[in-house]
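<discrete_fold_record>
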Amino acid sequence: MRGRWSLLALVAVLMICAAFAQTSQGHAMLRDAGLYKMPATYTELAFTNSGDLPVAPTAKEKIPVSFSIHNVSGSSSAYRWSIAVTGNGKAQGKTAGTVGVPAQGKATVTKTVTAACGNAPRLDVVVRLASPAESIDFWVTCPAGIPTATATKG
């Protein structure tokens, strides 16, 4: 009978320790002891629907751009983003902004940038985050004769 109570007491103590280890104070103790590592934090930048990226400027030479930012961390972050368009190595248009993303949350940014093909056969549309430094891009094919213009908010 005594052995059974000892086993039950041991199981109860282990359960209490396991429950404490799940709290922030338990994480701190385990981290200080070198037994717990904080989960990885990162930012995910992606086009909202990569299968629908434009292959050529739409009517009125506008390029729709939609991307999402996924904040995989324990705290909210404000992300500075920009969309730059280049053709033949020259800047053709740009727009920028800031978006707040909660911890473990996502935000979607949708903008329209005016095409500026000039005599470029194609444009490179680049979405960048300032910090962390990340970027994604795609190409659009220019029809001949589109005049140079500037970026617009959409």
Q: What stands out?
A: The chain has two domains: 2-32, 42-141. The longest strand covers residues 90-101. DSSP finds two helices and seven strands in the chain. Confidence is low (pLDDT under 50) at residues 145-154.
